[in-house]
Amino acid sequence: MNKREMIVRTSEKLDVPQVMVEAIWDQCEKEIIETLASGEKVAISGFGTFTINQKDEKQRINYFTKERIIVPAKTEPKFKFSDVFKAQINRY
């Protein structure tokens, strides 16, 4: 299922316009991104937790040229599903 299909299904099940469902989805997505960017975590009860993982700059070797390269530092988002969510999936 992709984003469009999820919006259509949700719209049909809740009997609300697709435009409204998409606007709500986009705003939720934006709030999660902004919260993570500010360094906070996002915990959605019964679903999971979004966190940020800081990766330091590191040196690696290009195995073909034997040249040292620097991999820049980066911030990676992480998601961990809640035990409640996992249990619901395993029931099916």
TrEMBL record:
GO molecular function, one term: structural constituent of chromatin
Record keywords: DNA condensation, DNA-binding
Listed GO biological process terms: chromosome condensation
Pfam families according to UniProt: Bac_DNA_binding
InterPro entries for this protein: Hist_DNA-bd, IHF-like_DNA-bd_dom_sf
Family: Belongs to the bacterial histone-like protein family.
Protein name, UniProt field: DNA-binding protein HU-beta
